[in-house]
Structures are given as structure tokens and as C-alpha cells.
Design the sequence.
């Protein structure tokens, strides 16, 4: 069974700090990796995708992928209270199905 | 920005009744999906649909579930005889291409089975 593991949190960071969210996955054949943000009672919103080893930056967000270690991370710089949400790691194989982790709750404190 | 539209936003149904959840995917997208999220749990894949047929389904998607694209715009999920454990948020999603280019999710339908 393909698994995606995340620490459920909550992860609390002060406003302006860097938030670091981590995810591990079990299937070595995984090819695509995503971070979604989900506010309470809302649907997942895609914020980052990454497909190859290394870093990918988009504004305040940086996704990092290490396929050898089966590890994906998301860094959020200059964290804002509006970033407070649950962050879902999702992993895809060769097809079009995504396997989601349980999510990490992030709280950005004033 | 294009969006995936789901109706209704909330549906309450009695156990054993049939429900149909409706979705309008983004117009130029070719791949359609249903996921569900039981309260406090992870988002789970149900089914993917392409070229008017199911391309993949999970163990959850048993004979009680079916999907249909009855016209050029709607994509529906039917649950024939609902159970209490079907209570969840159901999300429709669509994507332009295969290979996990990242989905756009709809706002979801909260299904409550009583």
C-alpha cells in the first residue's frame, strides 16, 4: 500500500518566520509531488508542484524533493497569519491518481 | 480564473437513499476525478474518468458507486444506497493532462447520511 506520511502538528511559528513542513512517501516509483493548502471546511488548493530532485521556488514558497530519501518538504518564508491552514502533501505515480498525507496543521502566531 | 463547480454544497439524506452529486469541470480539462474526505481524515481517491470511461478506481469505489458524464459539461457521482459511513466531503477535480499535472478541486459537497 502506498503511504504518504506527515506530522499532523500543529506546527506553530511566529509571524515573519520560516515554516518548514515535511513529508515522506513509500513508493519509489512516485513521479510527481504536490503541496496543497486546505483551510478548515474548504477544498484543497494547489500551491506547489515538483517533479525532479532539488528545489523549486515560487514567491514565498519553496518545495524541495529528494527522491533517494523519499522526502518532500515545503518552506514558507515570511509566514503570515493567513498561511494558517492544513498543508497536504500529495504524491502521484505514473497514472493520474494522487495519494494524500493526513496533512500538517500550521499556525502562524502574531 | 476557471473553476470546478459542485452542487449541492450540502446534502442530507436518509440511510438507504440514492444521492447524486454534481460537478462541472473546467471546460478544457479532459480528466475528471472524485475524492472524498471523512471529517478529520485524509483526502482519499475514489475514481478517475477519461474519454467517457473509468480509468482507475479505488477499493472504496464499490458497486454502490457510479460515475457518469451525461452531457458535455456535467460529471456526476451516484451513491445507490447510502450508508452512515458515506458521510464525508466529496470533492470533484479536473486536470488538463495525464501524469499528475496537478488538479483543480471543486469546493466540495458535504454529504450527511442520517
Sequence:
Amino acid at each position: 500500500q502506498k503511504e504518504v506520511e506527515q506530522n499532523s502538528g500543529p506546527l506553530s511559528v511566529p509571524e515573519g518566520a520560516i515554516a518548514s513542513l515535511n513529508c515522506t512517501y513509500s513508493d519509489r516509483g512516485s513521479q510527481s509531488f504536490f503541496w496543497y493548502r486546505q483551510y478548515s471546511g474548504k477544498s484543497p488548493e494547489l500551491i506547489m508542484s515538483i517533479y525532479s530532485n532539488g528545489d523549486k521556488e515560487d514567491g514565498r514558497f519553496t518545495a524541495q524533493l529528494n527522491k533517494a530519501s523519499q522526502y518532500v518538504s515545503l518552506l514558507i518564508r515570511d509566514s503570515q497569519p493567513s498561511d494558517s491552514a492544513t498543508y497536504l502533501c500529495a504524491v502521484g505515480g505514473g497514472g493520474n491518481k494522487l495519494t494524500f498525507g493526513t496533512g500538517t496543521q500550521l499556525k502562524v502566531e502574531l | 480564473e476557471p473553476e470546478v463547480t459542485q452542487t449541492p454544497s450540502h446534502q442530507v439524506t436518509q440511510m438507504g437513499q440514492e444521492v447524486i452529486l454534481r460537478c462541472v469541470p473546467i471546460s478544457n480539462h479532459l480528466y475528471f476525478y472524485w475524492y472524498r474526505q471523512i471529517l478529520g481524515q485524509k483526502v482519499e481517491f475514489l475514481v478517475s474518468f477519461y474519454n467517457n470511461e473509468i480509468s482507475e478506481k479505488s477499493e472504496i469505489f464499490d458497486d454502490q458507486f457510479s460515475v457518469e458524464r451525461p452531457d458535455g459539461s456535467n460529471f456526476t457521482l451516484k451513491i445507490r444506497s447510502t450508508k452512515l459511513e458515506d458521510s464525508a466531503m466529496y470533492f470533484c477535480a479536473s486536470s488538463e493532462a495525464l501524469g499528475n499535472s496537478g488538479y483543480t478541486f471543486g469546493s466540495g459537497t458535504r454529504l450527511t447520511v442520517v
Summary: The mean pLDDT of chain B is 93. Chain B touches chain A at residues 31, 33, 41-45, 48, 50, 55-56, 58, 89, 91, 95, 98-108 (CB under 8 Å). Chain B is about 0% helix and 50% strand. The radius of gyration of chain B is 13 Å.
